[in-house]
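Revision sheet: structure tokens.
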Amino acid sequence: MPAKKTAAPKKKAAAKKSTNSSAKTTAKAKKSSSVRKTAADKRSTAVSADSPFKNFTPYEPAKGEPYMEAPQLDHFRQILHRWRQELMEEVDRTVVHMQDEASNFPDPADRATQEEEFSIELKTRDRERRLIRKIEQTLERIDQEDYGYCDTCGVEIGLRRLEARPTAAQCVDCKSLEELKERQLKG
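Predicted:
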């Protein structure tokens, strides 16, 4: 009988080892596939679908190319023009949608639901209207060749930050400091 009892723990240990090794193999496979995905993402020149700036290639400056010269300014000008155009098209779609969907429902709950949907859509369009104004101000800064430098400290904002947020007027450090002060004041 003691032999059977010792065989069972050996089987459990062997099963546990194989489970651990298969888990490690699976973890390694996941890690290597994520590494492959990351490498593929780096090779890819298109921006992800999550970005509001679709269909543009990140700018790769030539060696020794000065910051915010004509090619870089043109790159950001194109991004901003496309972004503004997309927002304007969305405004047009909203107007058409609201005209088409505007109907007088007999049920008060349905009418309230429709009014709430319209209200949310109008708030979104108002935010986009303000964003369009900010885009136009940024385009003016590009024309004045005052684009790409922090309003607060005057340092270069950086190409990647500007591609992430083309309307940025502050470097990361100054913006972080401003947000920290704002949180402290407002609580």
